[in-house]
Design goal:
73 residues, two-stranded parallel sheet
C-alpha cells in the first residue's frame, strides 16, 4: 500500500430496491451485514472502513463498531 492505492475485495450485488432489503431491513442494515459476514477477512487486511457520508449513521455505524473496526466517512 505504499502507493496509496485503494482496492476492492469483492463485488456484491445490492439486494432489494428503494432502500429496503429482501429481509425487511434498510440498505444500511444490509451493507452492515455484508461487512459483518466478512469480518475475519476484513480484519486480516485493515481495521479501517472508508465510506460515503451516507453511511455515517446507524445501523451501519453500530455494525462497524461491533466488528471492532473504525469508520472514516
Amino acid at each position: 500500500m505504499e502507493n496509496y492505492i485503494a482496492f476492492h475485495l469483492e463485488a456484491i450485488h445490492t439486494q432489494g430496491s428503494k432502500g429496503g432489503s429482501d429481509q425487511g431491513g434498510n440498505l444500511l442494515d444490509w451493507y452492515g451485514n455484508v461487512l459483518y459476514d466478512r469480518k475475519s477477512t476484513l480484519a486480516s487486511l485493515s481495521s479501517i472502513i472508508i465510506a460515503d457520508a451516507n453511511f455515517a449513521k446507524n445501523p451501519f455505524v453500530d455494525k462497524v463498531l461491533s466488528i471492532e473496526m473504525y469508520l472514516i466517512s
